[in-house]
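Query form — protein laccase

QUESTION: What is the three-dimensional structure of this chain?
INPUT:
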Amino acid sequence: AAVVEHTFVVSQMNVRHLCKETLVTVVNGQLPGPAIEVNEGDSVVVHVVNKSPHNITIHWHGLKQRLNCWADGVPMITQCPIPPNYNFTYRFDVADQEGTLWWHAHVTCLRATLHGAFIIRPRTGASSYPFPKPDKEVPIIIGEWWELDLDELDRRMVDGDFDDNPSGGTMNGKLGDLYSCSGAKKEGFVLDVEPGKTYLLRVINAVLFSECYLKIAGHKFTVVAADANYVSPYSTDVITIAPGETVDALVVADAPPGRYYITALATQPPKPDLQVPKFVTRGIVQYSTSQSSGNGTAPPCSSHEGVGDEAPCVDEPAVAPEMPDQHDTMPSYYFHGNLTSLNRTGLPPVPSRADESMFVTLGVGSVCRRGQSCKRSGSKESIIVATMNNLSFQLPTTTMPLLEAHYHRTGDMDALQELPDRPPATFNFTDRALIPRGPKEGRLEPTSRGSLARRFRHGTVVDIVFQSTAMMQSDSNPMHLHGHDMFVLAQGVGNYDAERDVAKYNLVNPPVRNTVLVPRIGWTAVRFVADNPGVWYVHCHYEFHLSMGMAAIFIVEDGPTEGTSLPAPPSSEFLPCNHAHRLVP
Ligand code: C2O
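ANSWER: The structure tokens for laccase are given below.
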């Protein structure tokens, strides 16, 4: 096993898109940031040098961080944020997972430009992919382009008063030919393929809050992994991917040589019934014509490298895929429901029963602004927050990260409030009338804010049914758990009914994911083993919902035996949040 070492210099840079310079925060001057590529079993060291004006942490999304919660990268939960002009080093091992994950800043909306791929290949020498070896591997990162300052965007989200959309969608950082600057068509991401060859696309949804449909005209995908867990090969012409999720899919270049669009469409719930898509972005899958044509072919579009507006290309036609309707949630429902894990030896079995079970509603509610009393929801003094079991998360004001407080058993942990196993009995989450009609009206349940946490004894098998509610403006919810993968046992539309729905649980080959999509006004049942000691964030991966408080903390206690308790903090690097880190030299 190797040690893979990177230095991430976080800084601000001007990027020119849509005829305009926008100041964005990036890693190593790249957008998306550098990919980390490892083999299973490797160790990773990343030195983060913060030359930006922001407090930063980097989260290794989906990496299990076994016995290493210290490297999880969540501000004030696992570490002090890295202030401007300071360094911090992340060290962790990659074990028992293969496929595509990603990294992103876990600070406000900055993750819209601070992210990159994290690619885990099989252990060197020991094994290989459980599918035919692809001729080439290609990360596809679906992103967004915001002209709005991302700090400002976050402030609006926290205030629950938010009505903004990105200026465009990106594929591997390129805006593509649907977004032109003063009429000049711009080429986006280009994937050059050779006839008959097989490509492994490593697809990552890094956008702030849209599920996406991805298609390539004239081609089919064979999905082979999701969230760095192999799945039984699943053939489909459309991939659905929610923020936080990753999908690995094989594509064979078996169409008549030509140019084909690869298109990502941001989906929207049926209501509000917006006719304009939030964004659609497209790149080109381009067959090499070298073998087929001898007559001096047109020069290819100039260098696709670099950041910013791309070089104009010869405006050659390409075949466009027929996309699902942006309001149709069914392709997503079927895509997620059709995945099963690949049967391989050595996989941990699905526990046959749970020790504890929770039913968690995902909704919105209204709280009074700080220091104000408000008589009714929807009034000026109230703000809309996102909830789990009708409670909205906020970080406690502690002097040290919660993980450290937990490790040292300090009184800071008393600031936490228990996340109940069920919603309150008086809380009406099924009533359609609760759907807010506009940003300022609608009847919202009164709710409250707290530092929600749930403790688990080491090794507890936990069942959670996540229930999306009518309050959620018909949104789905990609729920992400840090430090653990979850077995996705079943999903359904409407309200969960234990009597009826337990029978649907797949205990044989459920897909295993770190992010589970809870369908709009529907539910998803998951099971996981709380066996990784530490303090782990669980939250909706829509940045909008997270900023508004759809989050909680799961505390997994130390186990009784060797190798089941949280090790001491890597001391040299873990100093208190008084900004006493080493200065950038
Ligand atoms: Cu990818 Cu806590 O997030």
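ADDITIONAL NOTE: Residues 291-306, 310-314, 579-585 have pLDDT under 50 and may be disordered.
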